[in-house]
Amino acid sequence: MSYPFSIPKTVQYWAVTALLASIAVAGALGTPEIAQRVIPQLYYDSQLFWTGRQMVYAERDIVYTDSSLKFVQELLQQPQEQSSVQLQSEGSLKTALRKMVARKQRAVEKANLLHFKFERLQRQHALAMGIAREPQPVEGL
Amino acid sequence: MTPDNAASAAELAAGPAAIAPSPSPTPRWFADPWCWVIVALAAFLLLYQLGQRPFWQDEAETACLAKNVLKYGLPRVTDGVNIISQEQGREYGKDLIWSWSPWMQIYVSALGMKLGGQNTFAGRLPFALAGVICVLLTYRLVRVHFADVQWARLAALFLALSVPFLLFGRQNRYYTLGAILTILSLEAFIPRRASSWANVLAGVSMGLMFHANYLLLFSFGPAIVVAKCLVERQLPRLRDLLIMGVCAMVIIVPGFMMYGIGKQGGMLDFTKIPANIGNYFADFVQFMLPLPVAVYLVWRWRRFFLAFMLKHAPEDRAERMMLLMGLTMLGSVLILALIPQRFLRYLVHLYPLLAVMLAWLCLKIWRNHKPCGALLGGLLLFTNWMHIIPMEVLGIVNRPWQTDPQMLAYPNIPIRLLLAELVHGYPDVNGHIIDFFKKNAHKNDTILITYGDLPLQFYTDFKILGGLRADDPDAVNNPEWLLKRSVSRTDRDGFLVQSDDVILNVLNLERDYDRIDLGVPDDMFGNRADPYYHQFVPQEEPYQTLVVYRRKDLRDRQ
């Protein structure tokens, strides 16, 4: 394949150098120690936003697993309902129940650890900005 | 003309017959003082404070088995008090001999302990030394086969400063053994026509690779053979394959009788393949080959890929070998994606290949345009910005919820993080647990712990229950001590493991136990090397603390 024009090699190299330099700048501004000094507000806002979102998802996961658990427990207590959801054996329901117990427990623990992470970030943010800030409510909770 | 070009031109001029043994224009490759400076740097980074953090669960599994090797001569899963198991008893048969994974790392760890005593440093020492040897062999590989001293130095430096490689190298596990065997097996694949001794060496290396971890062999072996065929555009000589195969099989066959390979084969789950490919892709570009570099290489070799690999392999010998290494890594990842368990640790043996490739690329650019080459080299050697920033820009960065900004999944200066950990130390969760029980528990006490049972087994003499073991009737008999970790674990069926289930749902903690808050963070794993879990800097407050439960009747015990 031939091109009607070609970009000189030197220009290509300088273009790549510029790209690498932009990665270097973005990387420096994304590195925690540097970001905390240069752009603290932006850094903590971003961290709090993403951790807050993860926390919201984790809380939702608790709700989902809890309702699924209750549904399976109800089915176990009402055998006549099992045929309506095409379930033939009680064994498979008990298996589902055990799995759901595990999933709920892990969802609770994940949300708990994310709460700690969020609080930690809030504390670091308050210290970095020199403000005593009350813990902020997370959007969606 | 650069030395690699010179080698290539000489090769082409003389024709294929003359290429037979690879040229060795530098018989005294070890005379370069810079080589030893880099090796010394690697030795410092691999050996300094090696025993500071105690073994985490997987390392402790190897260490406990090594301890039993020293006692019984064989990797028995019990010392008469405790059982070593993380797979609910699948790891052994009626003879109580370990058959879940190959034994090489167990015996190597046992050797370290035989020489240095049963402690953390001695257990990890042989593997860390193997890491140092890897750096030396990487230098030698480039220097001897391509006669380019700058490339050899830079490749060794890339490996010596690769923090994921250093983290895995500082573990009491097989990772660096796999890397050494990978480098040695390349002796048969770098020359176009390998000599008989090179084929023997490759066969023996691959045979031993099986005993390091058979997943390494199953992924690396076929990948490099196919890659070689594609790059050289010819099938390998039957004689070469026979020599290699016979040497490998002589070493491998006994392993089929010793290890329960079929046990793990029964857990294959093909529905996980797409997710595995996605996750390996994320791991590969975030911690190994940066996405922009990978895209550039694909573009550079586009004629090779578009022509269905039958034509247009690079003529330059060095570049052809880089293509070989790239295809080998790609093939290895694709094969590993078939295995349900996905870990970056299965790719650690490819780090030397990666170091050679990155060094080649940086030098190639440096020789044409110094500012560009210097910037690329600096970014790749000292930061992970090339790995993370493009993924962030594209919105495909993989950061599991437990990651923290001071980990390798975020833009960082990895070597600085590692040095911070080595110099300032890290308050390890397993260390806190071990210290607490050594101080407070009595000789015949029983401890039920939900995770971290194997470090406790290694460092203490108590009876330890729980972890990821199979159901144990003693667990429900109100053991003297309980420790529920912050994260519950599930078995392969998705059920809570017995230890978590018993503490959460069977025992009455309020009635029978006193709660003791240790006031220290309950990290998930401890000194785990995987970048998504390795914490270099301790967490600040607030955090989930370690909580121990002591049976109430022990309150007044001295």
Topology:
The complex is a heterodimer of chains A (141) and B (558).
Chain A lengths: L8 H22 L1 H7 L1 H38 L1 H4 L7 H40 L12
Chain B lengths: L2 H12 L18 H15 L9 H16 L31 H13 L3 H27 L2 H12 L2 H7 L5 H11 L10 H17 L1 H19 L5 H21 L2 H5 L7 H15 L3 H10 L1 H5 L10 H20 L14 H18 L1 H13 L2 H10 L19 H11 L4 H12 L5 E4 L3 H7 L3 E4 L14 E3 L14 H9 L2 H4 E9 L23 E7 L7
- What series of H and E elements makes up the topology of chain A? HHHHH
Helix content of chain B: 55-70%
The oligomerization state is heterodimer
Class from helix and strand fractions of chain B: mainly alpha
Number of strands of chain B: 5
Q: Give the overall average pLDDT of chain B.
A: 92
Number of domains of chain B: 2
* Global shape of chain A: elongated
Total number of beta strands of chain A: 0
Query: Nearest-angstrom radius of gyration of chain A?
Result: 26 Å
Instruction: Characterize the overall form of chain B.
Output: globular
Q: What is the makeup of the main sheet of chain A?
A: none
Q: What summary fits the major beta sheet of chain B?
A: 5 strands, mixed
Using CB atoms under 8 Å apart, which protein chain pair has the greatest interface? A-B, 39 and 43 residues
Number of helices of chain A: 5
- Helical content class of chain A: over 70%
Which consecutive residue ranges of chain B, at least 5 long each, have pLDDT under 50? 1-26
Q: Can you describe what's shown?
A:
- The complex is a heterodimer of chains A (141) and B (558).
- Chain A is built from 5 helices and no strands.
- Chain A is an all-alpha fold.
- Chain A is elongated.
- In chain B, β1 (446-449), α22 (453-459) and β2 form a beta-alpha-beta unit.
- In chain B, α5 packs parallel to α8 (175-185).
- Chain B has a 5-stranded mixed beta sheet with strand order 2-1-3-5-4.
- Chain B has 2 domains: 27-51 and 119-419, no CATH class; 429-554.
- Classes of the chains: A mainly alpha (141), B mainly alpha (558).
